[in-house]
Amino acid sequence: MAKLLYRLGFGSAKRAWLVIISWIMILGITVGAMVLGGSKLSETITIDGIASQKVIDQLKASFAAASGGSAQVVFHSIDGSKFSAEQQTAIAASLDRAAKVSGVEKALNPFTTNAELVQQRQDAVDGIKKLDDARAQIDSGQTALDEGKVKLEAAFADLTKKSNELEVGIAQAIEAKAPASVLDPLLANRAQIAAGFAQIKKQQAELVVQQKKLDDGRATIETNAAKLKYGNELLATSANFGTVSRDQATALAIIHFSLPINQVTKSTLAEVTSAISSSPISGVQIEYSKEFTSGVSDLLGVGEIVGLVIAAIVLFLMLGTFVSAGLPVLAAILGVGVAATATMALSRVFEMNSTTPVLGVMLGLAVGIDYSLFILNRHIRQLKSGVPVLESIGLASGTSGNAVVFAGLTVVIALSALNLTGIAFLGIMGTMGALGIIASVLVALTFTPAILGLLGLRVLSKKNRAILASGQTVELEKKPKAEKKSLLVTRQPWLIVLASIAVLVVAALPSASMRLGLPDGSSEPVDSSQYKAYKLTTAAFGEGANGAVIAVAKLPKALSSYGELKTQAGMAKMLFELKNVDSVLPGGISKDGTTYIFQVVPTTGPASLETQNLVYDIRDLASKFETNFKSTLGVTGLSATNIDVSKKLADALPIYLGTVLGLSMLLMMLVFRSILVPILASAGFLLTVFAVFGSITAVFQWGWLGSVFGVHDPGPILSFLPTIMIGILFGLAMDYQLFLTSGIREAFVHGKSARDSINYGIRLSRSVVVAAAIIMVSVFGGFAFSHLAMIRPMGFGLAAGVLFDAFIVRLLLVPSIMTILGKAAWWMPKWLDKILPDVDVEGAALERNRLH
Question: Helix, strand, or coil here: 731?
């Protein structure tokens, strides 16, 4: 490998312009692919197989209209007064324009929606009054009917009595053979009585008809009363909901899209905001929710640029010339440019989160500068010792370049291993990050030598060039200053061990309370539209209005219209009775009548612990839904996704961590030919990881030093941050372990005592390691002040990780414990030593062959 890299570096220096032009062409190709193909980055995180994602997939299949995403637009009266009629008309017009944008299903006018809600509630009150009036009329009619029945019964009894008496008289008259003059009047009376019976029978029939009408009316009233009851129950569960605030100064418009929000293109979102904002409304502030305004508008912000400037200053102080200081920065920017534009182009093919390209930029800048610096630093040392320019470039590529390849390989493997988690978006992040590292390594091995070939001796300061011109050289293998003077780590190893562990443990303590989740609008910069929208919504409607929990019930078959209403009301009531529920809104029923949707608006924010507990409570209702409604119950939305994503990541973390640690042990056994050094290095890595987690928790969840890092609303830690942080920090930790410990081992192998080899190796390598660590801390620290909420904790964590790992673990803790262990630190069974291949990471054999 060392010989191959020697030839690569030597050849790149000889054909400098060919290499430089080739890289420019590669950059042009990736930029062209990005511009022509466009980019498609998502703000949402989806993981196949989790419960909340299954609910979304179910909706796509059975209720496509409800599977579309939504976002909120907040209109606020600047002076706090009620919206005027003119303002309401202008707002309605802006939403009408938004509704015409391709991809928008509908844009709900908050004033119309609110008026409909008010009317529905008034109709419910009026309906109860009408039912009461109808019942009174029915009762009055029943009373009159009952009185008529009594009168008819009395008349029937009286007529029956008269009829019986008449029949007796007629019978007596016939028996007495009374004349016709006597019998005829009696017979006439009989006819009259018969007519009376017929009239009573007719009236009785009419009463039966009237009774049926009353019974039918009463049944209708009771049916309507039941419907009104269930309708009122639905209204009761949504009584706290509104789209216009009580003071009439804030209105919340909902924009519904035809596709899920993670599939809505940035151009569609931009068209909607443009349509709404195209005609400013006097006295009205318009803000957009997180779904509208989130995204990677700029890969670098002010904080990131400041970090680069600090890195450049460190390089200048170390190397002494602007030319040499600018080369690592230029090389890093080239590598980042290629990797970032390639990533953006590939985002049209692979679904990527918006943090993916920024992660690549962050890593590429940090490691790109360091990798180029290692080669450049070696080249400068060799030039000072009198090695010719081209030979020096080849040697630097074969020695330090060999170490760069190994260091880059560890980071690439660690990032690529994220695919082992089985989580697609995390695997893509790792793969794209690994692509950035590969680009940085290739640029360091080819572009850096090419530039060095063009610069010649100009990488040296004027003073050093003058010394070299006078024939004086500096011995390449010059012993470090004060080599025999013991370092603190070898003089007081136990003190350093205890102090280092104490610092790391204290930093790690807050990690015990780390809570994982996804950021909401409250974590965005205070001057951003999404933050303002979040706060305005919270003030006017409560925190829960920023992110409802979606409950979906699935029935085996459709019900009657009455059954649908009864079931919907029963489900809503059951959901509403849960703790921390502000309102429950029926979201509709699918065309086939089997899928019911409810928006459960919590009393707390979407990322709060109470809302997450509410998700668990809703899922616990599944058995009651099965018993009462014969239905299944699923939950989705931001809070449900938080829970599911965090659980999925937590389940995958042990596998990933075990893989990383196993890889760490194997690689270090190959390099250092030791059992205890790899164990020690891995243990130090774990301490670093927990110290980083604790620091992130203290700052971003507890709010410590929040004013410094822009944490105005502390919240849960980004759910995938621990996993991605382990992968990156592992690679970086192995870099520093390699550059420091390889010098110690080289000295030990060449006969120095265990203690002296530690003094020698650290003094030989610490300047470049310290400079490299400061550069990484500066670059990562710049991202801790990023304009992107999801990147800030990542940048902070990586900066803290490098700080802990390089300055405490690698420079203090590991050497101190190695001092205590003495020769035992380098023990390895002979049989294992024979099996393992000899890895010459520093290219010592190449150096001996070319220089001696």
Answer: helix
Beta-carbon contacts of residue 201 (< 8 Å; ≥ 6 apart): none
Token couple for 395: 């040697």
Q: Report the pLDDT value the prediction gives residue 109, as an integer from 0 to 100.
A: 94
- Within 8 A by CB and 6+ apart from 309, the residues are none
pLDDT for 20-71, tens place per residue?
999 999 999 988 888 886 666 665 666 777 888 888 888 887 887 777 788 8
Q: Provide the pLDDT for residue 849.
A: 58
Lowest mean pLDDT among 76-80, 218-222, 699-703: 218-222
- Please check whether residue 91 is in contact with residue 83, taking contact to mean a CB–CB distance below 8 angstroms: yes
Other Cβ atoms closer than 10 A to 836 = 13
CB distance 848 to 7 below 8 Å:
no
Spatial contact of 765 and 743, defined as CB atoms under 8 Å apart: yes
Spell out the residues 6+ positions from residue 812 whose beta carbon is closer than 8 angstroms to its own.
489, 496, 499, 500
Nearest-CA neighbor of 766 among 491, 502, 496, 482?
482
- Take residue 332 and report the two structure tokens written for it: 């890093």
Contact at 8 Å (CB) between 98 and 276?
A: yes
With CA atoms as reference, report the closest residue to 709 among 698, 725, 718, 720: 698
Whole-number Å distance between alpha carbons of 699 and 705: 6
Residue appearing with tokens 């050094």: 677
Distance in angstroms (rounded) separating the CA atoms of residues 311 and 97: 48
Ordered alpha helix ranges (H), 636-720: 638-672, 676-696, 706-709
Distance CA 374, CA 813 (A): 24
Whole-angstrom CA distances from 435 to 22, 153, 802, 819 are 18, 100, 21, 38
SS3 757: helix
Alpha-carbon 275 to chain mean position: 28
pLDDT at 540: 92
Mean pLDDT of 168-181: 85
Closest CA to 40 of 253, 256, 254, 259: 259
CB-based burial, 63-99: b 16+ in 10 Å, e otherwise = beebbbbbbbbbbbbeeeeebeeebbebbeebbebbb
Helices (H) and strands (E) in the chain, counts: 31, 12
What are the structure tokens assigned to 56, written together? 């979304």
Q: β-strand 250-257 against 70-77: which pairing, if any? A: antiparallel
The residues facing 75 across adjacent strands are 251, 286
CA gap 30, 113 in Å, rounded: 48
The answer to whether the CB of 272 falls within 8 A of the CB of 255 is yes
- Coil, helix or strand at residue 840: coil
The tokens describing 273, both together, are: 């905001």
Provide the β-strand partners of residue 828: none
Give the C-alpha separation, 72 to 255, whole Å: 6
Assess contact for 77 and 283: CB atoms under 8 A. yes
- Partnered with residue 599 across adjacent β-strands are 550, 585
Distances (CA, A) of 416 to 244, 364, 370, 432, 724: 49, 15, 21, 9, 11
Instruction: Give pLDDT, residue 483.
Output: 53
Give the closest residue to 26 by CA, choosing from 328, 342, 326, 331. 342
In tens, the pLDDT along 426-475 reads 888 888 888 989 999 999 999 999 999 998 888 887 887 787 777 766 65
pLDDT at 841: 58
For residues 693 and 509, the answer to whether their CB atoms sit within 8 Å is: no
Structure tokens at 287: 């803000």
CA 518/CA 351 separation, integer angstroms: 18
In sequence order, what are the residues at sequence separation of 6 or more whose Cβ sits closer than 8 angstroms to the Cβ of residue 310?
A: 778, 782
CA–CA distance, 183 with 199 (Å, rounded to integer): 25
3-state secondary structure 268-324: HHHHHHHHHHCCCCCCEEEEECHHHHCCCCCCCCHHHHHHHHHHHHHHHHHHCCHHH
Arithmetic mean of pLDDT, 581-598: 91
- 584 CB-contact burial (10 Å; exposed 0-12 / middle 13-18 / buried 19+): buried
